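Encode chain A's predicted structure.
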Amino acid sequence: MKASSVVVVPCYNEARRLSLTGFEEFRQYPDVRLLFVDDGSTDDTRAVLERLCERLEGQGQVLVQPRNGGKAEAVRSGMLAAHEAGAQQIAYLDADLATPPGEMHRLLTIHQERNAAVVMGARVALLGTRIERRAVRHYMGRVFATGASLVLSLRVYDTQCGAKVFRRSELLRSVLSAPFSSRWAFDVELIGRLLVGTAEQSGLTPEDFVEVPLQTWQDIGESKVKLLDVPKMGMDLLKISLRLQARRRELRRELALTP
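Encoded structure for chain A:
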């Protein structure tokens, strides 16, 4: 898929709730391509996606995973495919379109204008915005965001919004080369990897990230994240913190041995 801007959309058993008309709104933005990753769905998701791509007339493509690997792996595979295809902007977006196409395109535009490494949508209920989110999920999110900020040493408001844009780079390709250890908090793990960097590429700085308050976002009732998943997400944060600390120590040793 050759395009300067590719938006990865992970899909698992989404046949019933995929909004074909919603995704068709991307036809207003011919510079954007959609890469739908069918994550081993067992329903008619693949057939629905193929019909949608026909209606998008060249703006959409389906990447089929042979088995269900989870959202983190679907996003990682899609981003690597977009990077390999030469995309300069590599984004991802939730299949439920909680963040609508117009907002996704606005994030892509701000990413270009600000020349940022990463632009992240943030669900902030400000006057003049329409952020529809259930109270319980809002407070769950605030607790989680506090933990994520501590793990990353980064003043981030919303790590879990499913709309993010990344600048193509060797660092991005490198940090995507290994599967995520986290199933529930892979966004935090990805940001952490980018901050730590590799032996060959320096990590990003807080100034390389831009959070953009969304003007419109709608909480989807059939969200796959439940209250019972909160302890699992907390454990994921702990695992991510330990892995990032270990990676920093490893990098310091590698750099100390470099002549």
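Residues 136 and 238 are 22 Å apart (CA to CA).
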